[in-house]
Write a structure and sequence with these properties.
Strand content: 5-15%
Helix content: 55-70%
Distance between the termini: 82 Å
Number of helices: 10
Strand order of the largest sheet: 2-3-1-4
Structural class: alpha+beta
Number of domains: 2
Radius of gyration: 32 Å
Largest sheet: 4 strands, antiparallel
């Protein structure tokens, strides 16, 4: 070990005293062992720090590592914007892929300061200690400068760190709401069939002739109701139990917007109500599938594709899936 180095910490006593003054008692216990390794190697390196990983921006703010704060905050804003677009606009991306990308970004965002935060802290305090020594007339005065700076910032740093934590939590809440809306809209299509549904579908599948007539004019009479499987539809043309061809879907005579397939009748009704409140023409029809009866919700039909695209934007603004189809 070089002459003048402390045999306990492995660094020159003066250097150790400067780091202790800048870190404070609690910080010295947590980070001085890492600084010892850095000083022995002559450079900083990646080490894992749970405090830096969990604290993230708040941790960086508390230690006044402003360059790292700016970089990490820029990454957070860019990532939140990308995730917001992914959840609100990328309709063709499966929900599982969206969840995986979101989890990957959050993991990388925490891992970056977790691996390099202590190295950033070492570099920042090294520059701070060098400046204090250059400005002070004596070594003792340099130590006092560092200690005063640490004590003066401690309470303010905790307050600013708490504010940063709140801002990050609010940003995460926005992304969470964007995540919940597509999942809630896609839940009926992926939900397992429930045994309580077939009786209701059966009652709707064989309506009396008088009840069939008011069902034909629906909000938009341009829909040609045909069923997906050989089970009668409430919108089927009146007549004595005419057999329907399997595998044929309803075909509107114009442009429209597919919103979703719902296995739970209550969910379908809520979505219909939200679309109607937004002033959109709503089409719904039962569809029999291998998982049980479903309710298909659509918007339209429209004469022009521009009208359908505008309606799709309104549907997405409600937090629902929207896919435009052509006649």
């Amino acid at each position: 070990m070089p002459r003048g180095w402390d045999h306990t910490t492995g660094m020159p006593p003066g250097t150790e005293a400067l780091y202790r003054a800048a870190l404070g008692p609690a910080g010295a216990r947590a980070y001085l062992p890492f600084f010892t390794v850095f000083e022995a190697c002559g450079r900083s390196g990646a080490v894992w720090s749970p405090r830096a990983a969990v604290g993230n921006l708040a941790w960086l703010v508390y230690w006044r590592l402003w360059d790292a704060v700016l970089a990490q905050a820029s990454l957070a804003v860019a990532g939140a914007g990308a995730l917001g677009w992914l959840w609100a606009r990328a309709d063709g991306v499966p929900v599982g892929v969206r969840v995986g990308l979101t989890a990957t970004f959050c993991g990388l965002w925490c891992a970056l300061p977790g691996l390099w935060g202590v190295a950033w802290l070492h570099g920042g305090l090294r520059q701070r200690a060098k400046l204090a020594v250059e400005e002070a007339e004596t070594f003792k005065e340099a130590l006092e400068r560092l200690e005063r700076s640490e004590n003066a910032w401690r309470l303010r740093g905790l307050g600013v760190a708490a504010a940063v934590t709140l801002a990050v939590a609010l940003l995460a809440g926005v992304v969470w709401q964007l995540w919940r809306a597509p999942v809630a809209a896609g839940e009926p299509a992926s939900a397992a069939p429930r045994p309580a549904q077939p009786p209701a579908a059966s009652a709707a599948a064989v309506p009396p002739p008088a009840a069939t007539q008011p069902a034909l004019p629906k909000p938009e009479p341009d829909l040609e109701p045909v069923v997906e499987h050989p089970v009668a539809s409430p919108a089927a043309a009146p007549g004595p139990a005419a057999p329907e061809a399997p595998g044929i879907r309803p075909r509107p005579r114009g442009f429209g917007v597919n919103v979703g397939m719902f296995a739970v009748a209550g969910n379908a009704e809520r979505v219909k109500a939200r679309l109607a409140e937004a002033g959109l023409p709503v089409l719904d029809d039962p569809v029999e599938s291998a998982r049980g009866p479903l309710t298909r919700i659509r918007v339209g039909p429209f004469d022009q594709s521009e009208q359908a695209e505008a309606a799709a934007k309104t549907v997405r603004a409600l937090g629902l899936e929207a896919r435009v189809y052509a006649p």
